[in-house]
């Protein structure tokens, strides 16, 4: 087996990104506690969280995407009363998205939220 | 276009750190952090079975909509991120909408994870755990 050792990989022009054959890496991901004083449990390329009201959160990322057309995948943990419901998300800017957790037609704070972003970085 | 063909990439300075340039060229970020470290697509009904997976050692049925995933390669800490989704439930009210939830009443471990799948709530009914035909979960974080 051959092993290539390098700290940074760029395309042969010295600036463009390399192509991962038939694969794509997430550009940001995070998990956080959405109750009380909200806080990241873990994150990659996440900079801060904003509590925008019951069940609604803004997630800011450090290195911005190149447009607002990135993909967001969001999930939630279990809520003790309703066994979870659904989580929506939408892009605000190239460096911020919002995610909203719902239970029984109402916004609900929940202890575990997670999200990941796929697309092109700036 | 130049192409490097190799079987393995290793960081030169730090073995677990290989950076790649962003699409727009503005930044570099760590390649490993962006890679999913485990994922599974499985049928959660009847005798459960994975259709496809990465880094999955075993899949256990813990009850209705309740499953335990064991990883072949463990995480370095139990704070890895979990996400997922479910579908394929022929429910007359909720249609095919399902949810996946990380179950923190059973604390995640570095080598295993408890996840639950079910139907979302409606205006008149709470959500409920449910065996879903298409049950999918994925994780990001640091492997040991």
Provide structural commentary.
The complex is a heterodimer of chains A (122) and B (144). Chain A is mainly beta and 122 residues long. Chain A has one domain. In chain A, the strands form 2 sheets. In chain A, strands 5, 6, 8, 9 and 10 form a 5-stranded antiparallel sheet that branches. Chain A is elongated. The mean pLDDT of chain A is 90. Chain B is mostly beta strands. Chain B has one domain. Chain B is built from 1 helix and 12 strands, in the order E-E-E-H-E-E-E-E-E-E-E-E-E. The two termini of chain B are 35 Å apart. The model of chain B has no long low-confidence stretch (mean pLDDT 87). Classes of the chains: A mainly beta (122), B mainly beta (144). At the A-B interface, strand 1, strand 2, strand 3, strand 4 and strand 7 of A face strand 1, strand 2, strand 3, helix 1 and strand 8 of B.
Q: Could you tell me the radius of gyration of chain B in angstroms?
A: 18 Å
Order of helices and strands of chain A: EEEEEEEEEEE
Number of domains of chain A: 1
Identify low-pLDDT runs of chain A: none
Shape of chain B: elongated
Give the strand tally of chain A: 11
- Number of folding domains of chain B? 1
The helix/strand order of chain B is: EEEHEEEEEEEEE
Query: Which percent bin holds the helix content of chain A?
Result: under 10%
Which structural class matches the secondary elements of chain B? mainly beta
Strand fraction band of chain A?
over 45%
Helix content of chain B: under 10%
Q: What is the 3D shape of chain A?
A: elongated
What number is the mean pLDDT of chain B?
87
The biggest sheet of chain A, with number of strands, parallel, antiparallel or mixed sense and barrel status, is: 5 strands, antiparallel
Q: Which residues of chain B sit in consecutive blocks of at least 5 with pLDDT less than 50?
A: none
- Tally of extended strands of chain B? 12
């Amino acid at each position: 087996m051959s092993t290539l050792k390098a700290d940074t990989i760029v395309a042969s022009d010295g600036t463009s990104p390399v192509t991962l054959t038939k694969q794509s890496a997430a550009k940001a991901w995070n998990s956080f506690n959405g109750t009380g004083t909200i806080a990241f449990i873990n994150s990659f390329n996440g900079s801060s969280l904003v509590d925008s009201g019951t069940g609604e959160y803004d997630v800011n990322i450090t290195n911005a995407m190149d447009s607002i057309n990135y993909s967001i995948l969001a999930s939630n943990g279990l809520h003790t009363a309703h066994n979870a419901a659904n989580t929506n998300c939408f892009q605000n800017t190239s460096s911020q998205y919002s995610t909203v957790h719902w239970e029984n037609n109402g916004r609900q704070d929940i202890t575990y939220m997670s999200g990941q972003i796929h697309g092109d970085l700036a | 276009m130049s192409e490097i063909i190799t079987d393995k990439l290793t960081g030169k300075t730090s073995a677990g750190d290989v950076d790649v340039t962003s699409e727009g060229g503005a930044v570099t970020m760590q390649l490993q952090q962006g890679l999913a470290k485990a994922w599974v697509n499985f049928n959660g009904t009847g005798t459960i079975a994975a259709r496809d997976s990465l880094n999955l050692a075993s899949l256990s049925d813990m009850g209705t909509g309740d499953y335990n995933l064991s990883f072949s390669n463990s995480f370095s800490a139990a704070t890895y991120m979990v996400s997922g989704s479910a579908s394929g439930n022929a429910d007359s009210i909720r249609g095919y909408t399902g949810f996946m939830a990380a179950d923190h009443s059973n604390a995640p471990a570095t080598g295993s994870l408890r996840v639950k799948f079910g139907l979302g709530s409606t205006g008149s009914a709470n959500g409920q755990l449910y065996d879903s035909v298409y049950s999918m979960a994925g994780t990001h974080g640091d492997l040991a």
